[in-house]
TrEMBL record:
The keyword Lipoprotein does not apply. CDD domains: ABC_cobalt_CbiO_domain1. GO terms for molecular function: ATP binding; ATP hydrolysis activity; ATPase-coupled transmembrane transporter activity. The lineage of its organism: Bacteria, Bacillati, Actinomycetota, Actinomycetes, Streptosporangiales. This is Biotin transport system ATP-binding protein. It is an enzyme of class 3 (hydrolase). Keywords: ATP-binding, Hydrolase, Nucleotide-binding, Transport. It comes from Nocardiopsis sinuspersici.
Amino acid sequence: MLRLEGVSHSYDDRAVLRDVTLDLAEHRIGVIGANGSGKSTLARTLNGLVVPDEGRVTLGEWDTRRHARHIRRRVGFVFSDAANQIIMPTVAEDVEIGLRALKLGREETARRVEEALVRYGLDGHRDHPGHLLSGGQKQLLALASVLVTEPEVLVCDEPTTLLDLRNTRMVHRTLDGLEQQVVLFTHDLDLLDDFDRVLVMDAGRVVFDGVPGDAVPHYTKLMDER
Ligand SMILES: Nc1ncnc2c1ncn2[C@@H]1O[C@H](COP(=O)(O)OP(=O)(O)OP(=O)(O)O)[C@@H](O)[C@H]1O
Ligand SMILES: [Mg+2]
């Protein structure tokens, strides 16, 4: 289980996370909050992309400060701008690259790549350059490239920004069907209806923690008061 204990982080003199303590045990966890409230920074602490100035983030016995490599293999991360995650000449190679570190051997690697391409509807594009895919397909490729490594936890930072309704639904269905734990940072409140738990962030703190039916109205009220 991911656990944050007294996590605080500043950029220059500006506090962006303030003493956040959380046990992230639920299968589906959403995080919402205003622009600049610290969501992406919090997301990045979960797999060691950001190591907090104070406090610690752990996954079982692993600590992001000391075991970033172990944690990154277990906690997959999908960015809001999927294009940044597309780096290889072809779609198939983009899916394969994440597997290299796992050294699974040629056959197992090829099997997993094929399975991921089919599952995410990308098998017809295997030899195309990823940057020619549509926005929704890029998002699915980014998801496929992370999920092919079979992480224990998937952290998604606004995976549906830029997407039309059809592709938003496609990403939603994909996330919905995953066995893995998902921690979803989003402005798309509709995605959270069936989530187990939703955290509301404001000015670097978690100001509400509950079921979506209570968290979303709390956030809406917070925004109405501004
Ligand atoms: N690498 C960085 N260097 C300096 N300041 C940063 C950096 N990353 C984030 N910040 C600042 O930290 C604050 C929180 O940013 P963060 O990206 O975590 O917010 P957010 O809640 O994800 O916002 P949004 O909803 O707009 O994505 C912002 O004021 C931002 O300018
Ligand atoms: Mg953000």
